[in-house]
């Protein structure tokens, strides 16, 4: 089976970026090990602290963040980093060529029930002018990502990543510690009969999303003319992984409870990297009004509505927004 290095070289990835990716993955392997130890390593449960978004941090949020932060800041490849679990940007090496935004542990509420969790990352070039920890350096649209991906800590540990030359899936071979290509050039099926959305929030959505989901629920007798199935992992990494493997539509839409925050998911380290993977696999990613990758960020922790997955189904959903 093909090794990670070979795939990255075939995709024309520059050496320094390969080295950075390998460094980041060393951190993810460490997280994978800690996660698999579970209660034996005392890593489950919550801390007493909250992150900048007002979420109570899990022990694994804090541990994963620390592992990635330490390895990246010592690597020399990175000029600055930004994380869900850090209020501010952290300056790393002044000569580093890259910026990394990451969600150290996605779906952390699943950690206590031995269910799917993962790490999401997005890599961009560091601007020449950047000195120190100026967050403006990170405010680049998702189209500027040079690599994005996630590591899924499931029954097997998988890496799904794109460096702009297709989306590939890798499986961690724990016998020798390397990631091997197990699915090259993933293509998301254009049509689907599967959706993933937290239905308990339906009454808080805007009209178009409510109408769209009502039509899905109407099944073969409704305007969509087919029966849909619903799945919700409660971890974006798990839901997006399913979409990439077999198609589907995932949404965490605009929510009226807090219009300023526009839903739950964060642009820089959740929506953008997943949108990049999705588009590289022939899928689509939108807020309902704009392509996610075109958004000019205003804040490193900003939230955006997310609708992504099979292109045909995302387009069908967007028709409801056009009509409104
Ligand atoms: P995180 O654990 O990094 O804070 O992210 C959790 C997010 C995302 O992974 C998932 O899609 C969503 O929260 C689940 O939300 P619900 O609580 O509405 O199921
Ligand atoms: Mn969180
Ligand atoms: Mn997350
Ligand atoms: Mn997280």
Automatic annotation (TrEMBL):
Cofactor comment text: Binds 2 magnesium ions per subunit.
Subcellular location: Cytoplasm
Sequence positions that bind substrate: 106-109, 198, 264
Involved pathway(s): Carbohydrate biosynthesis
Catalytic activity: beta-D-fructose 1,6-bisphosphate + H2O = beta-D-fructose 6-phosphate + phosphate
InterPro entries in the record: FBPase_C_dom (IPR044015), FBPase_class-1 (IPR000146), FBPase_N (IPR033391), FBPtase (IPR028343)
Start and end residues of each Fructose-1-6-bisphosphatase class 1 C-terminal domain: 188-321
Annotated binding of Mg(2+) 2, by residue: 103, 106, 270
GO cellular component: cytosol
GO MF annotation, one: magnesium ion binding
Key words of the record: Carbohydrate metabolism, Cytoplasm, Hydrolase, Magnesium, Metal-binding
Cofactor annotation: Mg(2+)
EC number: 3.1.3.11
GO biological process: fructose 1,6-bisphosphate metabolic process; fructose 6-phosphate metabolic process; fructose metabolic process; gluconeogenesis; sucrose biosynthetic process
Pfam families hit by this protein: FBPase, FBPase_C
UniProt-annotated binding residues for Mg(2+) 1: 84, 103, 105
PANTHER family the record matches: FRUCTOSE-1,6-BISPHOSPHATASE-RELATED (PTHR11556), SEDOHEPTULOSE-1,7-BISPHOSPHATASE, CHLOROPLASTIC (PTHR11556:SF35)
Subunit architecture: Homotetramer.
Family statement: Belongs to the FBPase class 1 family.
Designated name of the protein: Fructose-1,6-bisphosphatase class 1
Organism in which the protein naturally occurs: Saliniradius amylolyticus
Gene name, Swiss-Prot/TrEMBL: fbp
């Amino acid at each position: 089976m093909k090794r990670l290095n070979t795939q990255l070289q075939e995709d024309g990835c520059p050496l320094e970026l390969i080295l950075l990716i390998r460094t980041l993955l060393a951190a993810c392997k460490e997280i994978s090990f800690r996660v698999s130890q579970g209660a034996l390593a005392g890593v489950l449960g919550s801390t007493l602290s909250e992150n900048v978004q007002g979420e109570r941090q899990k022990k694994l949020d804090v541990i994963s963040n620390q592992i990635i932060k330490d390895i990246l800041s010592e690597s020399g490849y990175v000029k600055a980093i930004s994380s869900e679990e850090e209020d501010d940007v952290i300056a790393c090496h002044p000569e580093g060529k890259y910026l990394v935004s990451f969600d150290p542990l996605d779906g952390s509420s699943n950690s206590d029930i031995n269910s799917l969790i993962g790490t999401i990352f997005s890599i961009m070039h560091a601007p020449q002018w950047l000195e120190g920890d100026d967050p403006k350096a990170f405010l680049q649209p998702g189209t500027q990502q040079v690599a994005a991906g996630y590591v899924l800590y499931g029954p097997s540990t998988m890496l799904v990543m794109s460096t702009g030359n297709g989306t590939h899936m890798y499986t961690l071979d724990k016998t020798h510690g390397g990631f091997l290509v197990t699915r090259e050039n993933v293509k998301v099926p254009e049509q689907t009969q599967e959706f993933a959305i937290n239905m308990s929030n339906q009454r808080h959505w805007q009209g178009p999303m409510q109408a769209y989901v009502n039509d899905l629920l109407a099944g073969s007798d409704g305007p969509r003319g087919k029966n849909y199935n619903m799945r919700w992992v409660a971890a974006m990494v798990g839901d997006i992984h399913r979409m990439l493997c077999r198609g589907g539509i995932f949404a965490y839409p605009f929510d009226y409870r807090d219009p300023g925050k526009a839903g739950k998911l964060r642009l820089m380290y959740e929506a953008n990297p997943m949108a990049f993977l999705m588009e590289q696999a022939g899928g689509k990613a939108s807020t309902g009004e704009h392509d996610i990758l075109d958004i000019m960020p205003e804040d490193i922790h900003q939230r955006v509505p997310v609708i992504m997955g099979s292109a045909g189904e995302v387009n069908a959903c967007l028709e409801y927004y056009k009509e409104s």
